[in-house]
Write a structure and sequence with these properties.
single chain, four-stranded antiparallel β-sheet, mainly alpha, 20 helices, 4% strand, binds calcium ion
Amino acid sequence: MRYIHVQQACRSMLIGATLVLPLTLLSACASSNTGSSLGTADANAQVQTNTSNEATQQTAQHTQNDTNSEKSFQEWLANFRRDAASEGISSQALSALDNVRYIERIVELDRHQPEFVRPIWDYLDGAVSRTRIANGKARLAEHRQTALEMQQRYGVPAEIIVAIWGIESDYGRNFGNFSTLSAFATLAYDGRRANFARTELLAALRIIDSGEITADEMIGSWAGAMGHTQFIPSSFESFAKDGDGDGRRDIWGSIPDVMASTANYLAEAGWQAGEPWGVEVTLPAGFDFTQTDRRSSSEWANQGIKAVQGNLPHFDSARVIVPAGAQGPAFMVGPNFNAILRYNNATSYALAVATLSDAIMDRPGIQQSWPRDQVPLTRAQVRELQEALNARGYSVGAADGIMGPNTRHGLRAFQRAQGLVPDGFATQSLLESIRGR
Ligand SMILES: [Ca+2]
C-alpha cells in the first residue's frame, strides 16, 4: 500500500486541474512515486501550456469514452447484483450498489507502472522522515494507554502498532477517500484482477450487511484498502477486532479498534512476543551471500556475523538480508520481520515499519550507508536483465520488470558463475557486464 500517499497528493492535483490532461498528470504522479517533486512541476507547466483546442478535443473524447464505459459497467453491475443476491447478500446491503460508480482514474492507476524501480533508501527517506518520527512519538504519547493495552492483549509492542499506523495511513491522516464498493466494482469490471476484486466486493457487502459500517463511510484507497489500517475487506473479515467493545469493528473512526486490529493481524501472522524484529549486522570478509535460508543466531555468529551495536539477539530461526546488495547495510531478521511482511510483502515496507518503530523509541537508526550513488534500473532494464538471465539458462520466469525473489535467485547464480559477489542486487554495471557476456 506504499503509494497511497503519492496517490493522495495526486488526487487533489487532478481535481485542481480538472479533467483536461488526466494521463499527463498521472505520469507526473508516478514520477513523484520515485521521490521527484520535479515531475509535479513539469506536469503543471504542461497543463498551463496546453492549448484550449487540444483541451476541448480531449475532454470530448473523454466524455464519449465515459458514456460507453458507464453503459456496459451498469450492465455488469446488474449481473453482479443478481449473483450477490444468490450468495445471500441482503437486499438492504445490495441497495448500496445504487451509488456505485465506474471510476476511470482507478483503472488508470491500476494499469500504471512507474518507469523506475525506486531504490530502498529513497523509499525509506520518505517513509521514515523526521516528521513521520515526530508524529509517531506524539501519537504514541496521545494513545499510550490504548497501545499498551493492545500490546498486553496481543503481544505486539506499542511502537510497532504505531509504526504500522504511520506507514499505512500517516497515522490516519491519509487513508484515502474512494468508495471501497466503487473501487472494487471498477477493478472487477475492468478485468485485470477480476476474480480478486469480485471476491473483495462481496466481502465488502457482507461487512455492510453486518452493520459495522455504512456504505457511505466505507472509504479507503483507490485499490480498496480501507481505513486507518488499510485492510482489504477479506482481511477485515478475518483480522479486524473491536478494541473499544462497542460491538462494531470500526477501523475508520475508533483508534482502539485500529490498534487492536493491527496488533491482531500481526499476532495471527506469527508475531513472537518479546522478540525484536531483527538487528543491523556486520558481515565477515568473504561472507557467502548465497545463504538465503534460515539459521539460528548462534550459527550466524559462528560465521563471524556481529551486531552493529551491542549483542546479537537470540533467534532460533533468522535470515540475513542485504536489501541494497553487499555495498549496503546488512540485517539479521527473525520471525517478527516475516510477520510484518505478511502485512505488505516488500522488504522496503517491513524495514520502514521496523526502523520507524525503533526511531519512535529513540533507538539508533541504520548505521551503515546505503549505496546512494547507484543509479536505479528502469523497468525496461530489469526486463532486459531478466531476458538475458533466461537466455543464459538462469530461469527467472516471465520478464515482468519486477525484481522478485526468482530474479534475485537467478541473478545470484549468474554472479557466482562470473566470480562476482552473489548478492542478488541489480546495478547498472551488472547490466553492462551481462550485456558483454
Ligand atoms: Ca469498536
